[in-house]
Amino acid sequence: MMREFSAGGVVVRHMRGRWQTAAIEPAGRSSARGKPVLALPKGLVDAGETPDLTAIREVREETGLETMLVTKLRDIKYVYTRSWGGGERVFKIVSFYLLRYESGKLGEIAPEMRIEVAGARWILLDEAPQLLAYKGEREVAAQAIEYINTHPEMRRFEASR
After folding, report:
1. Which domain does 78 fall in, by range?
2. In this structure, is the dihedral angle defined by the CA atoms of residues 101, 5, 113 and 25, taken in order, positive or negative?
3. Which residues lie closer than 8 Å to 115 by C-beta, 6 or more apart?
4. Per the structure, how many domains does the chain have?
5. How far apart are the C-alpha atoms of 161 and 150, rounded to whole Å?
6. pLDDT per residue of the chain (161 residues) written in tens, 0 to 9
7. In this structure, what CATH number is given to the domain that contains residue 90?
8. Which of 11, 36, 109, 140 has the fewest CB atoms in 10 Å of its CB?
């Protein structure tokens, strides 16, 4: 069985008294009801790249945002079957990090990324565990909420944006 290693981020910012997170709409995917699928930005770890730097790079590429690393949240592990290249089964590990928004305009995505990402939007972090399409990502969003609620140092970012 092949192995893949990816990393992604839960990007947070505090606006109008609420924590928000950046979600992407993967290109070519919609729910059974025709609504956009919402996911967290993530991608493959490049050779020589650390997972935390991959998360920051993938967030920038898929959302247009510059971020700062806060902490690692968790790894998600699963098996999937590729829909290309002979349908191989792949064991995948995705490391997710809590990232703080620094700058950039959400949705300013490079044209070459439009084949992967149809769009990006801010959603309320409290709603992310219900809105994200994938179970592991919903769990990661819930863990991000728990981290913010149990780490008083995150409060210093509440008034800054």
Report:
1. 2-157
2. negative
3. 27
4. 1
5. 20
6. 899 999 999 999 999 999 999 999 998 776 656 678 999 999 999 999 999 999 999 999 999 999 999 999 999 999 999 887 788 999 999 999 999 999 999 998 888 888 889 999 999 999 999 999 999 999 999 999 999 999 999 988 775 44
7. 3.90.79.10
8. 36
